[in-house]
Write a structure and sequence with these properties.
The protein is of the alpha+beta class. The protein has helices at residues 3-21, 232-282; strands at residues 23-26, 31-35, 40-42, 45-47, 56-61, 66-72, 78-79, 87-89, 100-102, 111-118, 125-126, 128-136, 143-147, 156-161, 170-176, 182-183, 190-192, 195-198, 207-214, 219-226.
């Protein structure tokens, strides 16, 4: 071995020692799912050969950095306000087990959690690890409605939304004719998230539209009745035409009636005059 080879040995040994002593934190399960109201266990372990004096271990909500629970070696643990009374360590953080159990899960517990171990005498390696907690909640019955005017040629948006649901629900639309027969959605329809836009509506658009809100826990649905009407302006125009026609018929009827009455009166006057004339001749 040359001089250069001997020089590399100390560096190699140093690198091995650093690797061995560097802390590693691991969350073996990257996603945990549990129903609302139930419990969830988040596993986390760490490895180090350094002295653990002054160590701190705990969990935070990653997105908000809100504290969940923090362990101080040789002291008491502290708890975040939202988790106080609902969280506890499953093992001994001083013995490399930082797993926790969260009880009475709520929708607000959804999110990414970070496990972190700080050892003052071991600043190398990876001191954090993350995992996701998904609180399972069936979708609530969606709220449905129509946005826009249901008149010929207009565009309308059919609204559908579940206030709750975890994982986030998928939304599906189906359509039925006024005779309650299943049919395809209109070719001009456009999906926009949970909503359905119907463009250039006509009489063929009328019918029933069913929205289903669904996730792995359950599903709910609501329905909307679409009744396409003639445009408002045309309704006024048609009403005016019909009203004018009725008025014309009434006027014509009055004129005809007056004419008939006049003819009858003239005829009666003529008959009376004729009878008077005949009486005079007989005398």
């Amino acid at each position: 071995m040359g001089t250069q080879g001997y020089r590399l040995v100390p560096y190699f040994l140093w690198a091995v020692l650093v690797t061995v002593s560097a802390i590693t934190v691991d969350t073996p399960t990257k996603k945990v799912e549990a129903a609302r109201g139930k419990n969830a266990t988040l596993l986390c372990t760490y490895q180090t050969i350094a002295d653990k004096s002054g160590s701190i271990a705990g969990w935070k909500k990653f997105d908000t950095q809100d504290e969940v629970i923090t362990y101080y070696l040789g002291s008491d643990s502290t708890y975040g306000d939202a988790y106080n009374g609902r969280v506890s360590f499953t093992g001994d953080p001083g013995a490399n087990n930082v797993g926790i159990t969260i009880t009475q899960l709520t929708m607000q517990d959804n999110g990414t959690y970070q496990c972190e171990v700080i050892i003052p005498k071991d600043r190398k390696g990876t001191p954090t690890a993350k995992m996701d907690l998904i609180v399972l909640v069936a979708p609530t019955k969606p709220i449905c409605g129509i946005e826009g005017s249901s008149e010929y040629g207009q565009d309308i948006k059919l609204k559908c939304n579940s206030v709750e649901g975890s994982p986030v629900p998928d939304y599906q639309w189906t359509s039925y004719s006024p005779q309650n027969m299943p049919r395809q959605l209109p070719l001009t329809s456009v999906r926009d998230g949970s909503d359905l836009t119907l463009k250039n509506i006509s009489a063929d658009t009328s019918g029933y539209y069913i929205c289903v809100s669904k996730n792995k826990v359950g599903e709910e649905s609501c329905n909307i009745t679409v009744a396409v009407m003639p445009p408002s302006m045309n309704i006024g125009l048609y009403a005016g035409i019909i009203g004018g026609g009725v008025a014309a018929v009434i006027v014509i009827g009055i004129i005809v009636y007056c004419c008939c009455c006049r003819d009858s009166k003239d005829k009666e006057d003529y008959n009376m005059a004729y009878r008077e004339e005949e009486k005079k001749k007989k005398k």
